[in-house]
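SAMPLE LOG
Freezer: B-3
Tube label: C17
Construct: single chain, 103 aa
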Amino acid sequence: MLLAAAWGRHPHHTPAGQWLNGVEEQVMLCHVTQMGLLRLLTLRTVMREDVITRAGAWRFLDLLRRDEPVGWFLFTLWKVPETKERSLEQIERTFRATAVKAA
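STRUCTURE (predicted):
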């Protein structure tokens, strides 16, 4: 839907744009949506002659983030137990320890 609304040559551009413009509340997107859009914008098999570079796709996302009807969900990578607070340092140590074990 987002690609169709953003890309003028998409076969469903007009109805997708009308839907997006008609939404009364903010449309919320997530990082998975962001990654998917980045991938699609940079694939020649999808975008054909309108394919853009990764840098161009990131610039597009920066512009999209400034668009008032679009908001972004922020995800956490883990659930912090409600009974125990974790400091940023503890979280970083846990990440480093996990990264070392995976390597």
